[in-house]
Every structure is written in structure tokens, then in C-alpha cells.
Design goal:
Order of helices and strands: HHEEEEEEEEEEEEEEEEEEEEEH
Strand content: 25-35%
Number of helices: 3
Strand order of the largest sheet: 2-5-8-13-16-18-19
Length: about 210
């Protein structure tokens, strides 16, 4: 029992030390920006694109359950409660101190649960938003600051409040802002949004 406790404690200490070292400002200066993502991939089993950006204070319960596509960005203090998988699409921006919790507890017996969180491409999540397990957020949606997202958000939707509800829909963008610069989306695969009649944006665009 003591030996097992020591092993677990050492693993946690090594993980915490690595994450602390990777917060050094050195790793946010070109050409060293790729080192943080690669270190988390190699040592903690994450699946991060080499050009994604994780600012200081970003932490995950289990990095093996975290994947981020090209150009994705996590601002300072983002908390990934990654008991289940968390997938973040390319060019998505997650604001400061947001929490993504892919684990919870059963309402019947409080047993731990874990369902994946999937965030599409070009999504913007405001500061201190909370996204709960089992939620899928569609491409180019926007989540307001402080929102609590408990159900799926369609592509192009703007969702705010607690619990979050859709209040409007965006125009289909031709470009998206990222920390690394604008990305031109003209001709990109946005047709899955535009040609899907089940998407509310197809018929209720700009509805409140």
C-alpha cells in the first residue's frame, strides 16, 4: 500500500513539475513554441498538433484524453477535467479560466461518469465558461463568457447564459481569427454546415 502511494505521488509530482517548467516564458518565444506541445505528447500522452498554443496555467487531469488540432489555442488557466476524451478542433480559441469537464457523477448513486467533449473548428469559448461532459459544439459556434454549456450547441450558433441557450446564429465566416493570425476559410469544408437542412442556421438564421 505504501509503495503504491509512493509511486502515485511520484508520478503526480513529476507531472506537476513538467507542467510548471513548460509554463516558462521561454516556450512562448519563436522558434521554441512547438516544444510545449511535443513535450506533453511525448511525456504525458497528449495528442496535440505542433502549432497549437497552450498558455501558462493550462492543466489537465489526464493528458492522454486530450487532443487539439492545428491552430487551436488555450488561454491562461484553462482547466481540462479530462476524465473522458476532450477533442478541440483547429483554429478554436478557449478563453481564460474556462473549464471543460468530461467527467461527472451519476444522479442515481453518485458513481463517476465520463462522456467525451467535442469542440469543432473555429469555435470561440469565452472566459470562465464551463462545458460539461457529453457536449458537442459545432463548427464556428460562439460560447459567451461565464456560460454553462450542458447540451449540444449547433454549428454557427451563439450561446450564452446559465444554462447556455442559443440566442442567435452567425453568418458563415470566410475567415477566422487565431492568435497566430487570420485564417482564410473561403473554399474550406464549410459545406457540411451550409447544405445540412437539419442545422437550425439553415432556416432560422439570425433568429433570437
Amino acid at each position: 500500500m505504501i509503495a503504491k502511494w509512493l509511486v502515485v505521488s511520484m508520478k503526480r509530482s513529476c507531472k506537476a513539475s513538467l507542467c510548471w517548467m513548460l509554463d516558462w516564458s521561454f516556450f512562448y518565444e519563436p522558434p521554441f513554441t512547438w516544444i510545449k506541445a511535443r513535450a506533453l505528447n511525448e511525456f504525458l500522452g497528449a495528442k496535440l498538433a505542433p502549432d497549437c498554443i497552450l498558455m501558462p496555467g493550462v492543466r489537465a487531469v489526464n493528458w492522454r484524453n486530450v487532443s487539439m488540432d492545428s491552430g487551436a489555442y488555450l488561454a491562461d488557466g484553462v482547466n481540462l477535467r479530462s476524465h473522458g476524451s476532450i477533442r478541440i478542433g483547429r483554429w478554436t480559441t478557449i478563453g481564460p479560466e474556462a473549464m471543460l469537464a468530461s467527467g461527472g457523477h451519476s444522479t442515481s448513486d453518485l458513481a463517476p461518469t465520463h462522456s467525451p467533449i467535442t469542440i469543432g473548428k473555429g469555435v470561440f469559448v469565452g472566459a470562465r465558461a464551463l462545458i460539461l461532459e457529453g457536449v458537442t459544439i459545432g463548427d464556428h459556434a460562439m460560447i459567451g463568457a461565464g456560460a454553462i454549456v450542458v447540451r449540444d450547441v449547433p454549428p454557427l450558433a451563439i450561446a450564452v447564459g446559465s444554462p447556455a441557450r442559443v440566442v442567435a446564429y452567425r453568418d458563415t465566416p470566410e475567415r477566422v481569427w487565431t492568435v497566430a493570425g487570420m485564417r482564410n476559410l473561403k473554399g474550406e469544408v464549410l459545406q457540411d454546415v451550409l447544405t445540412d437542412p437539419s442545422c437550425p442556421a439553415f432556416s432560422t438564421h439570425d433568429a433570437f
